[in-house]
Amino acid sequence: MSLRISFLRPLLAIAWVCFLFCTPSAEASPVPPALVTGREVLLHPYFFALEDDNGHLSASSVFNSSSALVPLDSLHSGSPTGYFWLKATLHADSGLKDPVQILSFSHLTFVDVYLYENNTCVLYRQAGEFRRRSDISEEDGRVYTRLQLQPGKTYTLLLQVHHTKHFQPVFNFVLQSRREYFHHLRVQQTTDAALQGAMVIFFLYTLLSLLVSRFRPYFWLLLTVVGGGLFVICSSGNFIEWFFPENPAAGWLLNAPFLHIGMFGLYGLLIDFWQLKKHNRVLYLWWWWSAALVILTAVAAFCVPQFTGNYQLMIGLSLWKTPLTLVLIICTVWTCWNRLSTAQRFLAYGLLLAGVAGLVVPVNATFNREQSLATITLTVDITIICVFLLFATGLKEEMRQHEIGKQAALQELTELQQYQKILLERQVDERTEELHVTNRRLVKQKQLLAERNVQIETLINELNHRVKNNLQLLYGLLSLQLPMVKDGHARDILKGNIGKIRAMMLVNQKLFNFEKGQGVSLCEFIDELAAHLQKIYDTNGRTRISQDIPESLRLSEKHTLSFGLILSELFTNTFKHAFQDQKDPCIHVEAMAVGEKWLQFAYSDNGTGLKGGEIMDKFTMGIPLIKDLTRQMNGQITIKKEEGLSYSFLIPV
Description:
This protein has helices spanning 2-22, 59-64, 178-213, 217-236, 238-243, 248-253, 255-273, 276-279, 281-308, 311-319, 322-336, 342-368, 373-481, 488-515, 522-537, 557-578, 614-618, 622-632, and strands at 34-36, 41-42, 48-52, 70-71, 83-92, 100-104, 110-117, 120-127, 144-148, 154-162, 174-177, 520-521, 544-548, 554-555, 586-594, 598-605, 636-640, 646-652. Strand 7 (110-117) and strand 8 (120-127) form a beta hairpin. It is built from 18 helices and 18 strands. 30% of the residues are buried. The protein has three domains: 34-182, Immunoglobulin-like (Sandwich); 189-405, Rhopdopsin 7-helix transmembrane proteins; 517-652, Heat Shock Protein 90 (2-Layer Sandwich), CATH 3.30.565.10. 59% of the residues lie in helices and 15% in strands. The strands form four sheets. Strands 1, 3, 4, 5, 7, 8 and 10 form a seven-stranded mixed beta sheet that branches.
């Protein structure tokens, strides 16, 4: 197997070299120049292209470096917002009648046009939808430039394209005669003027109808006409030329918000004219949520290109919800059709038409992307006109029926109010009776709870007395046995047990007070326990015991027993072992609250301290017991041996 691979490697290398040398380059098969005869010429097949990532290349350097350009179809573009250089050779036909030719395009934001003759730049123009009007020649427009071509001569056309809308740029440059281009331009402008004039007429009619009739659906129709009309004017470029000639990008920001204003008015028209609040509360809420979504989308469609320049995302945000709107329209028409009047059904036809248009628009935008903007404008304009005509037709019938049913509605409303009053009174009576039954049940439960609390309190008192008596009995027996014990080690053990029992007695007493609502005072508890242990081990009372504990500091009931046993061990160990050679023995105890969940407790003495393995010799039970009790309380302990012994506890409370 390895022999076959080693044999094939030289053959593959030779084949690869042959492929590289045999592959034709851009210069190996030059494209013939575009022949300019006055008819429409699509320049896309004649372009050689180069992508300039940063826009640092100059026109002269690109013109002289033809080897760096590749056929436009072979260009693998990177960022859609990059800089692209396009180069094409033009040959003016000797029979060219009009030397002025129009170079036109669509939707590109910035285009710089260079025309070379015999390696000399004879023309430079600026164009583009986002170009300032002051940078464009008076004879040119935003999407077209005039080229002066002499018959029989050959020119080199060099274009720098910078498309900032985040759409993949489409280089649909067309060269045609001046007469043909302006003929198409006049037809388009006439169509736009007719549609915009219709919008103005509808606006005035709707405004007058609203002022005269005060019928609220006219307001929503007026909002629809205003939003749609401004969208059409803005999309056609007139709005930008009127108000933003030096900042056309700002004018484009208002395109999507205008469309959403019209959609919001259409939603309000449906909700109000079909009386969804009265007949179908669920659809009413769904439509108002959709209207709120339209407003949020309008804000997002304005902010996204304002801060990112991404107009592709703006259009995506504007169109993503249209299929959902169509589904909602179909569901609403299907649900409400049977109850709709003849006048209201005219609006249903218009809404279905708007829904179909809303479905066609995103499909068209998906396949044609930015090139679909022209058809979107026409679709929106025709849809609004149809909705207006259908609504106006049905509204006249609705107004007539409205007057007829007004009196009947008032009578029905009066009867309904009386019926609701009867229902309300009946519900009040039923609720009052339910409250009486509930109150009697609560009184009975309260009595049972009071009796049970008395029984529980009696049992607790009895249990406390028995525990107290048992501890007192045990304490008295051990105290009586203490004088009879002669062995010193046994006496120490017995004293320690007596101290622990005394601590338990104090804990029992404090817990009993805690149950009575008095709490367990840490300062008082330490005073009593220290005084008792001092009587046992320090009969002369020469040891000073100082405290630094706030009087308001209290222990929880679940920690009192463990804490009392820890204190008993600490005092016992100190009295027994710490002050054998100390002239001024002293024990210091302090405590403080750390936050709301922790108690910091410190115990220290000025005794002899510990050396080496002395802990294991003297306190085989004491320190391990202290550590175990601290662990049971989920606390932490730190022991220091400098100048006596000091213990630091961090206990959750």
